[in-house]
Design goal:
The complex is a heterodimer of chains A (121) and B (669). With 121 residues, chain A is α/β, with parallel strands linked by helices. In chain A, strands 1, 2, 3, 4, 5 and 6 form a 6-stranded mixed beta sheet that branches. Chain A has a single domain, classed as STAS domain (Transcription Regulator spoIIAA, 2-Layer Sandwich), CATH 3.30.750.24. The longest helix of chain A is centred in the middle third of the chain and has 16 residues. Chain A has 4 helices and 6 strands. Chain B is built from 19 helices and 15 strands. With 669 residues, chain B is an alpha+beta fold. In chain B, a hairpin with a 4-residue loop joins strand 7 and strand 8. The longest helix of chain B has 51 residues. In chain B, helix 1 crosses helix 2 and helix 2 packs across helix 4. Chain B is elongated and about 145 Å long. The chains are: A alpha/beta (121), B alpha+beta (669). At the A-B interface, helix 2 of A face loops of B.
Amino acid sequence: MTEFNISKEFVDNDIVIIKVSGFLDAHTAPKLEDEISQLLDDKKYKIIIDFSSLNYISSAGLGVFMANIEIIRSNGGDIKFYNLPDKVFEVFDMLGFPMLYEFYKDLNLAIEKFKEQSNAE
Amino acid sequence: MLIYKKYINKIKKYKETAFFFIAIFLIILVKNYFNEYVVKNSNSGILTLLIDLLTFVIFYLSLNQLSKIIPKKNNLDLVVLLFYTNLGLTIISFIGSLLKNEIIFNTIYFFFNIIVISVNFIILKKLYYSKQKKNISFYFNLMFGLMIATAILHTVVENISILNFSLIIKFFEIITFLLTFYCATKFAWITFLYKKEKLFLILMSVLIVAVLFVNRYFLMQDILQKNIFFNNLQEYNTGFVVLYFILVLFSTLFTLPSADFIEEKKRELNTIIKFSKLTEFVLTENKLFENIANIFSEFFSIKGCWILKFKEDDYDIVAIENVSYTFATKISDVLKLSIKNEKSFKNLKISEQLLSEEKKKIEQVNVMPLLNGDEPVAYLCYLTDTLYYDEEDYAVLKAFQDYINMMLKNSKLVYESIEKERLKNELELAAKVQKRLLPEKDPSHDYFEILSYYKPAYEVGGDYYDYFRHDEKKFSFLISDVSGKGLTASFIMSEIKGIFTVLSEIYNDPKTILKKANSLLKKILSRTSYITGIYATVDIQKNELTYCRAGHLPLLLKREDKVIKLNAKGIGLGLVFDDFENYIDTEKIELHNDDIFIMYTDGVTEAMNSEGELFGLQRLINLVQNSKDLKDIYENILKEIKEFSSENQNDDITFILFKYKNRGENDRI
């Protein structure tokens, strides 16, 4: 099993890429939740989640993204998902997440989308 | 015959008593009628011999009788009894010396003397055996036997002057004396006495020896001089008693300084016994503290103690022993700052000013932290009159502290397990209640065959399934899963039951029902939880199944040998609340005879093996494909999941299987 780990990286100072690896379940979800709340406290609302090294996501893991999405969107931000392994995407897909969130294969596209949005404003 | 035997037994029983009285009667007879003669006529050997013989018989019988009467008391009581009987004898001797030669009095005096000798022997024998580990009866019996034998020899030699045994008698006397000396050294019991008892024993020994000397002074030699056997017996007995108590006196004196030590050891032992009894009971912490204070003040020679327990900034005195509450509070006020969170022993000299009100002689206050594991729980404060504690004292105190530590730990564990047990019982009750929210049994129906399985990962879970009957021709199946598991999920599950039961009464269209349920759930769900589910309605008349999938795992359809994933677009409940209908599609399936539908929760597909691998949808599809019938599928799912996860279930597992069997086609024929 891969150790659960979170790392973040800033692009252009207002877009943040959070890389989550390992198992995202009821035990590890609170860590990610803390990380996201920290970003909101710092008024960073443009979040890209990099799931390329995620092995598994449980229902509690999915719940993390729902918790703050309203606040994020009302502040002109969003959560976008990037580089999901097929198995993980299936879980998101089954639940209907693609109807609510954007999923990208290409990181640059996700970043560009954020930039477009801020330009439009 | 029987009556005869009974009498024989009775006679046997009273035989000795009867002999005793006959002997007494005889001796009174002989003494009263022949005493004058005996005293005057020194050659009446046979008669004196007869008296001696009777004396021996009486002595023997009184020894027997009295050894039954003298109770099994503790040694000190026996010593006191011995003192009183000898004192009594001395008083009678004194009276006798005043009266002189009153025949009746002489007889009474004689009997009393025999009784006292018997008592002396019996008591000394008991003391002799007391606390002896080896069997030493041989020496005592030998000594006693030799005393009797020597006394008899004396009387025989004196009365029948033809024989001369003086050398043998000397020999006998020497051996008797040596044995007496040996037997007089058997007083192991004095080691086990408390200091006070030892002091009392010293007093008693002095008194007994004194009384016996006085007695000897008043002893009516002239009455007894012709009673040679008795005379000698009396001599030996007195000698033995005096020797025994002189030795007891000295050895008690010598062991007096160590009495304190023995006392302490004894007290330690008692404390340990008390303590171990205490651990058998489940005590609340405060009750435990009270007992600790009580035992501690009994155990150590201290001038009072109390236990204080910190409570945020303040403290409580939870137990107090032999000291006034006000004094304890005064000292605690001084102490509290220096001992808080302290884990080691502390002591403090008490100032004159603080002491002025206490009358007791106190020098210092000592503090023993009472630990539970490594955490100080409370502090035992005790007052002493010495400033100094040696290492041994400290070791005992440390042992005491360890013992309390263990007790506190035990008490905590017991209470925790009681609490756990209580919670477990409540969860079991909750599990029972939840079980009642699910269908009692799978309904039997002309058009369906239904099998279901439900097993929560913990006592209660968030999975839910149900069947609804809208009208004669329409039936619905529902399976749902609340995100998360355990107690929180189970509360939401019971809400869902209510929502769907009511909605299914009003509506019969899956999409409407899910839409209404979604908006009702907005108030119930927290922002991070959601619900997935499939609502499927079967219309028997139209031979049609209509379903909506709200973010749930695909509905599986086994038709002939194929397994079809029914995966209509649909979002989980609780994710969006505006325009929910846009996020969910309805799909209609035409039903064939023998179609089997499989609804399941992620407990099935996400069963995990030891390597963290998931069971997965594909394995489920394969096993369904390879199974023949409903029962077959049911058993294979359970079997394969069990094998895969090696029985480690970490999510609620639920599935419903139903087979459609419309006989409409037959009707048409």
